[in-house]
Amino acid sequence: MQSCFFCRVIGGEEPAVWVEREEHAVAFAPLADSALAPGHTLVVPVHHSRDLMSADPVALSSTMALAQRVSRAMVGALGATGVVLLQASGADAGQSVPHLHLHVVPSWPDDATIHWPGTPSAHVYDGDPHAALAEMFE
């Protein structure tokens, strides 16, 4: 998909600092001005998938497996004591590039950053949201 920035990166049309390239998923550094921590890495399926909801099982499993290996590398190579995995699907969730991607962000005790939402959603759902979710699986 030529209009997709990540597809152009994967295709070699945009520059990238590669961490790993595999058959179904790749890992590379984000743009320098958007890095959340030293070693912050994007993990992306090779096959274009708009978001989590539209990705096929191979894209999902390959992307998550590579994110796990990147996380382990962050602990081993960078001395990270933990990692934060960030993913947004849909513009209202904050997704800025319409290609499924995971942000793998290393963490250390001296970070003083919080990678968790500070305030809960203000959206009100009339009824039991978990019961509604469970009904979708029946």
Automatic annotation (TrEMBL):
<dbReference type="GO" id="GO:0003824">
    <property type="term" value="F:catalytic activity"/>
</dbReference>
<dbReference type="InterPro" id="IPR001310">
    <property type="entry name" value="Histidine_triad_HIT"/>
</dbReference>
<dbReference type="InterPro" id="IPR036265">
    <property type="entry name" value="HIT-like_sf"/>
</dbReference>
<dbReference type="InterPro" id="IPR011146">
    <property type="entry name" value="HIT-like"/>
</dbReference>
<feature type="active site" description="Tele-AMP-histidine intermediate">
    <location>
        <position position="101"/>
    </location>
</feature>
<dbReference type="Pfam" id="PF01230">
    <property type="entry name" value="HIT"/>
</dbReference>
<feature type="domain" description="HIT">
    <location>
        <begin position="5"/>
        <end position="114"/>
    </location>
</feature>
<dbReference type="GO" id="GO:0009117">
    <property type="term" value="P:nucleotide metabolic process"/>
</dbReference>
<protein>
    <submittedName>
        <fullName>HIT domain-containing protein</fullName>
    </submittedName>
</protein>
<dbReference type="InterPro" id="IPR019808">
    <property type="entry name" value="Histidine_triad_CS"/>
</dbReference>
<feature type="short sequence motif" description="Histidine triad motif">
    <location>
        <begin position="99"/>
        <end position="103"/>
    </location>
</feature>
